[in-house]
Design goal:
The chain is built from 6 helices and 2 strands; from the N terminus they run αβαβαααα. The chain is mainly alpha-helical. It has one domain: Glutaredoxin (3-Layer(aba) Sandwich). A two-stranded parallel sheet has the order 1-2. Helix 2 runs parallel beside helix 4. It is flat.
């Protein structure tokens, strides 16, 4: 093991839980690697899905869809926060954005969850 690899392995690690379709996860996914690098912290990517949880809470869909006012607000809030953080408009977190941001191991996990492995993970 090289010195750099050993040092990276010994760096503190944070678990980063994010939801693929979350507007607010988009804001964090797009910024976390830079912040982790600045602080010498490794990221353990922990993707999850809220969709299967909604029915257990008595919801048929996202609160942003079910409540029009909340949906309208989140669109304005996302535009404001994307400007604040210098990100492209992100009205939702498309899986392709997650795949582009995650390390190759996470890309493989995400793609397998969606039914196809990306070429980088094959």
């Amino acid at each position: 093991m090289t010195g750099v690899a050993k040092q990276a392995e010994q760096a503190p690690e944070i678990e980063f839980w994010f939801e693929f379709g979350s507007n607010y996860s988009y804001l964090s996914v797009m910024r976390i690697e830079v912040e982790a690098g600045r602080h010498g912290v490794r990221i353990a990517w922990k993707p999850f899905l809220l969709g299967p949880i909604f029915p257990a809470l008595g919801m048929e869909n996202s609160p942003f869809v079910l409540q029009k006012e909340k949906g309208a607000y989140v669109q304005q809030d996302m535009a404001r926060l994307c400007r604040k953080y210098g990100l492209g408009p992100g009205s939702s977190l498309a899986c392709s954005r997650v795949l582009a941001c995650c390390p190759s191991g996470s890309r493989y996990w995400v793609s397998m969850s969606l039914g196809s492995a990306p070429s980088a993970a094959r």
